[in-house]
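Q: I have two molecules that I believe assemble together. Could you output structure tokens for the complex as a whole instead of separate predictions?
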Amino acid sequence: MEEARRRAEEALAGIYESIEEGKGFVSFIVPVERLVEAAEALKSAGFDHVKSVTAVDRPKEGVIEVTYHTSSYGDPELAKGIVGLTVRVPRDNPRVPSLSRIWVSAEFQEREAFEFFGVIFEGHPDLRPILLAPPIAELRPLRKDFVVKEEPIYRGPIQKVEKPP
Amino acid sequence: MAAGELKLSGWEVGEVRRLPGMDVKKIGKDLYEIFIGPQHPGSGHMRIIVRLDGDVMVEVDPDLGYVHRTMEKLAEGRSYIKVIPLMERMAILDACNITLPYVEAVEKLLGLEPPERARYLRVLLCEINRIASHLYGMGIFGVFLGHSTMYMWPFGDREVFVELAERLTGARLTHTYAIPGGVRRDVPEGFTDDLRKAIRYMRKRLEDYRKIFLDNPVIRARLEDVGVISRNLAIELGIVGPNLRASGVEYDVRLVEPYEAYDELDFEIPVFEEGDALARTWVRVEEIKQSLRILEQVADKLDKMPREGVMHDKFWAKAPKLYKDVYAKEGRVKLMPLFATLRVPKGKAFARAEAGRGEIVYYVESDGGMTPYRVRVVSPSFRNAIVFKYIAPGHRLMDLPAIYGSIDYFPPEADR
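A: Yes, here they are, computed for all two components at once.
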């Protein structure tokens, strides 16, 4: 983990704004204009695939946070760590440059973040819903303002209680 | 018209004709668009849209999501403990492996580690699950290739490991065995003897599989040099599990970031260089051998260990006396009431584990409440689905079942 962090920090020097420490991963927050540059730097440092494109909706701050959790297959030292690349985009117009030309492994997961959160990945080769039917994808189900209606508990047929005279 | 002769004359461009199991649309001279599924073409509920030139696939579009259950959303409305039985619906046969990283992520947030015996018990069920999962995959692969024996044998032998899991946990599938802080039960009396018997039996059976399936000339003709994924391409596509290791990449979470008791156990990671469908099948067979080796060591270790400590002390101290008495007598632990109102400190955690079909990762974010703020899960089959798009084109249509079966793709797991 230490080695992965050091190498990522070296590669992203001057690009990232701040570092976020998570349990089991470390994330570099980059401005959205410099995301492609950061991804290219990270890939040439040996982080060769994306494990998860994690989007999180934060309505209180008005942002959607997209994190690319990357790691390495080729380098056994880097494989021990998980390095994230985070961008924060406004909720009402979430536009992120697509990284699936840099990491092919992000392609299907970007489609997933698109349908569940409505994040537009600019330059994605094939941006359409993958898991959901298009009308459901329109509702952006993983945003916090989409509330799941749980079925009520069935308590048998309703019985009319007659008031005693 | 002679039997078996398909009448092709008069097939207009744009017309759809029904063939067994698929709809075929003519889109040009000798160009056809085929919709395979989602009514279960072989295994699983997905649709594959294939565009054919003659009988060579030129474009393959996997259409997933037919068994999608929005688990990530449902998890946001459930307490931490209830997310475990929810998530294991992805791959019921592989339940312990599939939920383990979630439990580990919650443990990371809680800042506690399970006791030694619990760690070994988790490994025990993980490896039983892995064997059962590989046997299931090989059985489905057999039926894809029209090899009925290879369908029947692994499905029968899988029962041995499902039975072991049942004795250990009380449930054949969906065990909900690992919970934050430890596990739900200890091994019953005489379990390790039965386990050793199962290991001896399975070793013998793997030899039978080799003779009838893996070294069968008909099967080899269909699998060798089919669906070849080079090492670089495997890394680029980010595929996982046995498929990755069949392409010469030595990556296994048990090796790079050992979790539970894996760093104390002696085993090897089988790696093949060929990257074709046959190599992917061999990796699974070799992995079963290694899992049996792990199980043997775990059985020895459990026998030597004192029968105590399946739950972290912090939680165990709060258990009522009745619970402790039952555990001392029968080895069972009832789920403690404190889990119903478990609050997890604020934070973000990422955890991974090697499930039967490959690496599974979880990202869990807590805002300090009773339910997770966000649970992100990427399952191995979802990461392997990209193989359809990038590897299948260029092969003949008859190779599609061989590729599909060899990557052990499991739609309920991919769709989540």
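A: One point stands out. The first helix of chain A runs from residue 2 to 11.
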